[in-house]
Amino acid sequence: MPASSDVFSATLPSKDMPLTPESLSDGRTTPPSSRIHQLTTADPLTHTMGPKLLYYVLLKVHSIIQANIFDSIIVVGAHIRTSPALITDNEKADKPFNWQRPTATIISTPKNKTLQLNVFPGPAYVEHYAALLATYFASTAFRGTCIPPVYYQLPPSDASVTLFASSNLRHLGPVDIAIFGYVDSLHNSTGPGEWETGTDNGDVEPPLFAWKKRRLPNGRIVAFVGCTACYWGDIGGQLIQSLSELSGVREAIYVGKLGTLDARYVPNSILATGSSSKFLDGGIVKWRSVLERAVQGSTIVKEGVHCTVATSLCETKEWAQEWKTKADWVDPEIGHMALVSVEQGVSFGYLHVVSDNLSREGLEGLVDERKATIVADRKKLLHEVEVVLERYFKESRDD
Fold first, then answer.
1. Same structural domain for residues 145 and 122?
2. Per the structure, how many domains does the chain have?
3. For residue 110, what pLDDT is reported?
4. Orientation of helix 334-344 relative to helix 234-247, angle to 10°
5. Spans of biased composition, class Polar residues (predicted)?
6. CA quadruple 150, 257, 89, 239: dihedral sign
7. I want to staple 207 with a disulfide (CB 3.0 to 4.6 A). Which of 168, 190, 293, 299 is the partner?
8. Do 130 and 183 have their domain in common?
């Protein structure tokens, strides 16, 4: 289990079991720390996703948890894909990147049966998955049943940097510009040919990263980098740090998706960009977007202020009402990526599909993403992303 200074708990108590350290000493599992923390537990009645919330959660809960009863569950930051860790049945392995989900390791003793959920090591991602489980067990399906206590242990803040350094990313080589996120959908920009991994294709476990490189006329190297795992939250910042340290990357562009707090915007119809991000604790990071000139003139790209959250489970209707006067966009990664970019001297920019609207109910959202109409709309948006990128590459050639 990774080292950590704190272990938190998200026990969901029944009416006659208040949340206290004493209530956890029930013969099942006692947390390694007496510090108790109430996790985010979302309610469909108050969350911006409304009735779709539980479907969103269910898609992410490990299949072994849905099929079995455990005495306790602990969420840790660890990337484990080999036995005895169990792969969940609901991985989206029909796409090349961002398909791996947390694995599960069953730990049994004569007195209890504990499940350890192995989440890619980022503090925000661990918190997010613990909140998903808290919300799952708080659903009406578990009323009247014995709910296992859920603990989580935060990994070191640089755990993913260490993991990336030992992964095949170290074989990427010198790169000037890194593009990451929806790179497998940027067919015109990446061009034909196979994705490289720098490793033997006969490996039993797929390499963590794959990439395609492109040399601009001025000699600068662009790498489109895909990852089989999700770099949720601060993991995104650790990825930029690793790209800077391992390959000398000086410009980074993130192409992904985010939510909007602006009621004017319809999901899957615009792209979002910006040059500032606010954190919930009051912090803010500002930078000069590397895409500042390239997005000018696009009627599809909208600029705004971004908000960085640890988990989408915190996005209640009350929260959205407060934050819609402070920010336009929201996601878990951008603020962390920008902050590390500033610290590392890396120029940064993002260009994201607006996937959902937190200020309007009834619109398309995160659980509708495989609908044919949404797939078609996003294809058009990603074509516009490529138009912007090609303009950016041309500016780079002309500099």
1. yes
2. 2
3. 83
4. 30
5. 1-12, 22-37
6. negative
7. 168
8. no
389 and 186 in contact (C-beta within 8 Å)? yes
Q: Containing domain of residue 72, as a range?
A: 7-153
Asked whether residue 29 carries a pLDDT value surpassing 70, the answer given is no
pTM of the model: 0.89
Cross-strand bridge partners of residue 213: 223
Out of 135, 153, 171, a domain closes at 153
In tens, the pLDDT along 246-300 reads 999 999 999 999 999 999 999 999 999 999 999 999 999 999 999 999 999 899 9
HEC letters along the chain = CCCCCCEEECCCCCCCCCCCCHHHCCCCCCCCCCCCCCCCCCCCCCECCHHHHHHHHHCCCCHHHHHCCCCEEEEEECCCCCCCCECCCCCCCCCCCCCCCCEEEEEECCCCEEEEEEECCCHHHHHHHHHHHHHHHHCHHHCCCCCCCEEEECCCCCHHHHHHHHCHHHHCCCCCEEEEECHHHCHHHHCCCCCECCCCCCCCCCCCEEEEEEECCCCCEEEEEEECCCCCCHHHHHHHHHHHHHHCCCEEEEECEEEECCCCCCCCCCEEECCEEEECCCCEEECCCCCCCCCCCCCCEEECCEEECCCHHHCEHHHHHHHCCCCCEEECCHHHHHHHHHHHCCEEEECEEEEEECCCCCCCCHHHCCCHHHHHHHHHHHHHHHHHHHHHHHHHHHC
Task: Determine the Cα angle at 60 with ends 353 and 314, to 5°.
Answer: 65
Question: Are residues 201 and 211 in contact, defined by beta-carbon separation less than 8 angstroms?
Answer: no
